[in-house]
Amino acid sequence: MKPELYDLSATDAIRAVRSGKASPREIAESCIERIKVIEPRLKAWAAFEPDLLLEQFDHLEARRRETGEFPQLAGALFGVKDIFNTETLNTEMGSELWSGFSPGNDARAVFMMRYAGACLAGKTVTAEFAVHHPGETLNPYGETLSAGTSSGASAVAVATGMVPVSLGTQTAGSTIRPASYLGVYGMKPSFGLVPRTGVLKTADTLDHVSFFARTVCDLKLTLNATRVSGANHPFIHKCVDKRPRKSRDAAKRIAMVKGPKWSDAESYAQESLHTFANVLGGLPNIDCIEYDLPAAFSEIFDIHQIIYTKSLSYYFAHEIEQPDKISRSFREMTNAGRSITADEFRECLAAQTRLSQEMDSWLSKYDAVITLAAAGEAPEGRDAPDRPDNCLIWTFCGVPSVNLPIGFGPEKLPLGVQIIAPKYHDLDLLDLLAEFEDEGAVAPAAVVEPIFD
Description:
By secondary structure, the protein is of the alpha/beta class. The protein is built from 14 helices and 11 strands. The protein has one domain: Amidase signature (AS) enzymes.
């Protein structure tokens, strides 16, 4: 066994398997030992069963004997937020109401990862029904710090080297924000690009499957493994597969925007965005200029809240009939949703369509937009409310966004910048990030050692 193998990115682990430098089982055993050492302190896993993980490698070996080679992603391990169906592990969604529930199948994204040869390490902790009431997961930078919103444990698992990649979700800021707090890459693809079949539903027009990784290459690997593609998906085939991509030496326009919640951000976070914009402006073929986000997008916050709370009150009508088994914050949100009329809800859905179209038009002028990923470093308090930020604007409009770990704040805690591209320009966005990486503007995230006992 090679204990250092847990430090590999998924891409490098796959290369190690293909070159014969390591076997998939050796990589898995290294990650298992890593989890056993640090999981008791971090509490990132809702379900982790090493024997089930190792069984998957027996199946990989059988496929290799049958075909003469390992499948494409052999060597890659991944975690899954505990709102994705999994065939071999329970799906409890952060709620005692669903304790012991076994769906008996894999969510589509999980199935596609496993079919490609990646192995499921386990289920990461989620907030209650992936909303606000947090689980027990601790931030490795300090046990009293927030690990972020509902996908925080998925970010913790990647940041600390327990797995190189994990799946999460985002309905407002549940991927970009914890990725910023933990210093990893977090990607929310374009709405509809990754199927949500077999994933807990909270809001039809807002829920996105998302990814955490320590490298840009791993984001690309995960997106390509899980997204829909090909002629059987004609819209995506036209808008993503067949759309011409910009060459690396083509001129690119990047807008730096502050957004309506800029005044809520810490001054050091604001400065970090300006510094990063200056770095990008110094790269070849990049024109980075500050622009104002159109004022119309400020109304998104109120509209999002109405769509979200009304949807929660509908999808969790059964659960809220058992108020002693749900959190106060969840009761408050669903009670607010119950008071919203059907006409109000329909008006907000129409407004979402209108504003998304306006966003598509505005973003078409740029190759990318950069803004803050969060208002500052991880706040003190495991259940501390997140400071207001602009994450939900990009979620609401369904455009791809990525947190870039760019450094640290005054308390030596990670700080990120968010980059957004026009809808369905996900592959171009990852190409652009690879260009940034080659030019030294961004770098792979290092594995974090927990700093508390």
